């Protein structure tokens, strides 16, 4: 089932999400619905707060990036077929020289900006069977994970921009929160009356 994606301005996007356990109701169905929602919106990641749930769950599928000809064959191979659900994730370490990459977000449609992030991370998380893993990722794969991880921390990519950039984007962000935007996927806007 395709779920509406919560738009910029909704308080759920600002909450630090809570851990869940294997008794979380209908978790398997929720994850399936999140995959369907993400693919319908042509995303490469989706976090539970983006569908209105303040829980520590996010999905990543970097396959669409794997045909980027600017990437090395090794990077393309790393991204191709990488599909994973991260439950109760915690970043242990981020390292390396921060680099810029143009990011967007399904909750903030039609806005893309360069964001600085460190190129390497080590993350501990649970998979869908609640087995615990600690893994290290780098490059574009690390960046997608960092972006989704930020969502479960109540952080948006626009928070990482300079104060000047934020001021320049303010009116566009306000329009998104009021639903004055056209998107080709289902969204839920915080600042408009029900029934629209």
In percent, how helical is the residue content? 25-40%
Helix-strand sequence = EHEEHEEEEEHHE
Q: Can you tell me the residue ranges where pLDDT is under 50 for at least 5 consecutive residues?
A: none
Per DSSP, the total helix count is 4
Largest sheet entry: 5 strands, antiparallel
Secondary structure class reads alpha+beta
Strand order, biggest sheet?
A: 2-3-4-7-8
The end-to-end span amounts to 21 Å
- Give the beta-strand count: 9
Note the quaternary state here. Answer: single chain
Strand portion: 25-35%
The geometry reads as globular
Q: What Rg is obtained from the alpha carbons, in whole angstroms?
A: 16 Å
- Indicate the mean pLDDT: 95
Strand-helix topology:
Elements (H helix, E strand, L loop, with lengths): L4 E2 L20 H14 L4 E3 L9 E5 L11 H7 L3 E13 L3 E7 L2 E10 L2 E7 L5 E7 H14 L10 H15 L9 E2 L8
Parallel strand pairs: 1-9
Antiparallel strand pairs: 2-3, 3-4, 4-7, 5-6, 7-8
Structure description:
The chain is an alpha+beta fold. 26% of the residues lie in helices and 29% in strands. The chain contains 4 helices and 9 strands, in the order βαββαβββββααβ. The chain has a 5-stranded antiparallel β-sheet with strand order 2-3-4-7-8, sandwiched between helices. Strands 1-9 form a two-stranded parallel ribbon. A two-stranded antiparallel ribbon has the order 5-6. The longest helix has 15 residues, at 163-177. The radius of gyration is 16 Å and the shape is globular. It starts with a strand and ends in an 8-residue tail after the last strand.
């Amino acid at each position: 089932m395709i779920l509406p994606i919560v738009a910029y301005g909704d308080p759920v996007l600002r909450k630090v999400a809570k851990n869940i356990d294997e008794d979380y109701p209908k978790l398997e169905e929720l994850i399936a619905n999140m995959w369907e929602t993400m693919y319908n919106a042509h995303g490469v990641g989706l976090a539970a707060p983006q569908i209105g749930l303040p829980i520590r769950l996010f999905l990543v599928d970097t396959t669409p990036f794997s045909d980027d000809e600017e990437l090395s064959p090794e990077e393309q191979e790393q991204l191709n077929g990488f599909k994973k659900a991260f439950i109760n994730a915690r970043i242990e370490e981020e390292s390396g020289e921060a680099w810029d990459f143009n990011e967007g977000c399904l909750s903030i449609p039609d806005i893309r900006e360069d964001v600085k992030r460190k190129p390497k991370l080590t993350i501990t998380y649970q998979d869908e069977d609640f087995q615990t893993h600690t893994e290290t990722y780098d490059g574009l794969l690390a960046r997608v994970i960092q972006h989704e991880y930020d969502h479960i921390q109540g952080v948006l990519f626009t928070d990482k921009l300079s104060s000047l950039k934020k001021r320049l984007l303010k009116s566009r962000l306000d329009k998104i929160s009021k639903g004055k935007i056209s998107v080709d996927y289902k969204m839920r806007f915080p600042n408009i009356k029900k029934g629209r």
